Amino acid sequence: MSDEGEGMKKTSRRTFFKTASLGAAAFSARLYSGQPSRSDFLLPADKIPFELGLASYTFRAFSLDDTLAMTKRLGLRKISFKSMHLPLESKPEEIQAVRVKVKAAGLELYAGGVIYMKTELEVRQAFAYAKTAGMKMIIGVPNHELLELVQKCVREDNISCAIHNHGPTDKLYPTPESVCDKVKNFDKRMGLCLDIGHTQRSGLDPAQAAERCLDRLLDVHIKDVTASTAEGVSIEIGRGVIDIPKFLRTLVTLRYSGAVSLEHEKDEKDPLPGAAESIGYVRGVLAAL
């Protein structure tokens, strides 16, 4: 490549990351000024085939009402609930009341999880819970011997099950491929919730994992981590080692149309600043694609 061409490539890369960083900074500033505009939250539907959402584990130290309010402040519409925001053992009338509250807040409760399923009873409880809540998906971790039962429930209730990979120390589903290998002969509504942080911690490229598992890719948990090893921990998106622009560009190219939900695990007692920075960075990257 000529010096001129190399210079143009470097300039283009600098411009890309400048746009992404400015997007993150501008979004966070408007969020905390109390003056975010609707245009801050919208993505061009013809360009971006997926929708950003939130995994409520991000706000695990906060009440349901606070979680809904902060999700709205982030400009997100889709939300999946971890059990601290809607306990699995809730009575049907309690689940219905929460369902009404979420809808009244202008949010879509699209999934529940992560839900561990170690017994037949826990499988049936998870699907009854999701059905009552109007969820379209369970983000779950069923024991291998329960996959036949999960398939039966998926077909009976028309609720998908996206199995979550949990990284190098997990014995059931450490990698995306370990999920896809287990479900390849099951109903297509059984697939993968791709956690890109745990994927990177396993020494794998999340973009390549998305491509390899596309036919089973049902959900995405987006985050960043500090290292591509088991020791990597959560950090604001854009500050870690994951190539977020490459990953998002891959999802757009593949025309992935599920949710891409932020799961920000850092700063449990004060997660909103990091969540806002992360969402702002993602929006900035998408605007620069």
Structural notes for this entry:
It is a single chain. The chain has 289 residues and is of the alpha/beta class. Helices cover 44% and strands 17% of the residues. The protein is built from ten helices and ten strands. The protein has helices at residues 3-33, 64-73, 92-104, 120-133, 147-157, 176-183, 196-201, 206-212, 244-254, 272-288, and strands spanning 51-55, 78-81, 108-117, 137-142, 160-164, 190-195, 217-222, 224-225, 234-235, 259-262. The radius of gyration is 19 Å and the shape is globular.
Whole-angstrom Rg: 19 Å
Give the distance, in angstroms, between the N- and C-terminal Cα atoms. 23 Å
SSE arrangement, N to C = HEHEHEHEHEHEHHEEEHEH
CATH class: Alpha Beta
Overall tally of structural domains: 1
Largest sheet: 8 strands, parallel, barrel
Strand content: 15-25%
CATH superfamily grouping: Divalent-metal-dependent TIM barrel enzymes
Strand order of the largest sheet: 1-2-3-4-5-6-7-10
Mean pLDDT: 90
Brief summary:
The protein is of the alpha/beta class. It has ten helices and ten strands.
Fold blueprint:
Blueprint: H1 3-33, E1 51-55, H2 64-73, E2 78-81, H3 92-104, E3 108-117, H4 120-133, E4 137-142, H5 147-157, E5 160-164, H6 176-183, E6 190-195, H7 196-201, H8 206-212, E7 217-222, E8 224-225, E9 234-235, H9 244-254, E10 259-262, H10 272-288
Parallel strand pairs: 1-2, 1-10, 2-3, 3-4, 4-5, 5-6, 6-7, 7-10
Antiparallel strand pairs: 8-9
Features of this protein?
8-stranded parallel beta barrel, globular, alpha/beta, two-stranded antiparallel sheet, disordered N terminus, 289 residues, TIM Barrel
